[in-house]
Amino acid sequence: MQLYIKNMVCNRCIMAVRTELEAIKAPVKSIELGEVTIDGDLSASQLQQLEESLTRLGFEIINDKRSRLIEQIKNEIIALVHHSGEVLSQNLSFWLAEKMHYDYTYLSNLFSDIEGTTIEKYYIAQRIEKVKELLVYDEMSLSEIADKMGYSSAAYLSSQFKKITGFTPTHYKSIKETKRKKIDEL
Fold it and tell me: Where in this chain does the record put each HTH araC/xylS-type domain (predicted)?
């Protein structure tokens, strides 16, 4: 049995979902961002209990195919930007189409229709959030951050950062009480 779960964005989310699955004694095969594989099926009462406990934690079981695809797109981008350390050596469109096994035009139109923004803008927003995190840590120069995040130059990173946030990276870094957005709120 496959379950698709909305708002799983990090390893702590995986642990929280695992805990809820263990509480209902579900035989878990694997858990990844947004996706759970269970050995066998859950009873109606187990599924209801799971849905209620996940909702309390801010998660949601996704039942329709279109919403699952959107969540998978988001999870692939989040994993790429925040967890893999990988820098794309190809276009985002080609990478995502290959990952998802769908035509990019279909994915792009679906994403835009449901989310009201483009996949590219979502990807940029995730990258900028990661840049904010790296700026706050204050362990790397802007050039090092640009290189790590796959920007062609620190100047291009600064330009995109200012366009999205309204601040230069240096000014952002100097603001002590900057509140970052949660990944799932982008």
Answer: 96-175
Residues 6+ apart with CB under 8 A from 21: 28, 31, 36, 38, 50
- Report d(CA 120, CA 29) in Å as an integer: 33
Domain covering 2-62: architecture: 2-Layer Sandwich (3.30)
DSSP assignment of 2-47: EEEEET--SHHHHHHHHHHHHHTT--EEEEETTEEEESS---HHHH
For 27, the token pair is 């035989």
* pLDDT (tens digit per residue) in 3-24: 888 888 888 989 999 999 999 9
Residue 11 CB neighbours (<10 A): 10
The 10s digit of each residue's pLDDT in 99-133 is 999 999 999 999 999 899 999 999 999 999 999 99
Given the candidates 3.40.50.920, 1.10.10.60, 2.40.40.20, 3.40.50.2000, the CATH classification of the domain at 64-186 is 1.10.10.60
Residue 60, SS3?
strand
